[in-house]
Structures are given as C-alpha cells and as structure tokens.
Amino acid sequence: MTMYYKNLKATAQVNGNDQGGSSVKWTLEYEKENENIPAPIKYLELMPVITKNIDTYLTKNA
To answer: What are the residue boundaries of the structural domains of the chain, listed by start?
Structure first.
C-alpha cells in the first residue's frame, strides 16, 4: 500500500435513527504516489464487509 499511496485514511461516521437502527457513511481519503496509480477502488468494496462485521459483533455483544 505504501508504494502506491502516500496517505490512505478510511473514516466511518455512524448515525443512529429513531427506529433504533443506524446508518454508516464511509469516507476514503488518499494521495497517490503518482498519477499513474489507480484509485483504491478495492478498498471501497471492503467497506460493506467491515460494516457488516461490526454490526454482527455489536449485535452479539450488546
């Protein structure tokens, strides 16, 4: 990762709602090492998996 991106930061913002659930907004900030490097799309595909795993953990441990 460090050979492609100078910086890569993922942030999750979780907001509760009136029905007892919540929504998650992911932000991915990055700086490429150079312009020939592709955007880190594979990390965007990982975000729903991480969200589901956190939800499962919190549901089991609430």
So the answer is: 5-61
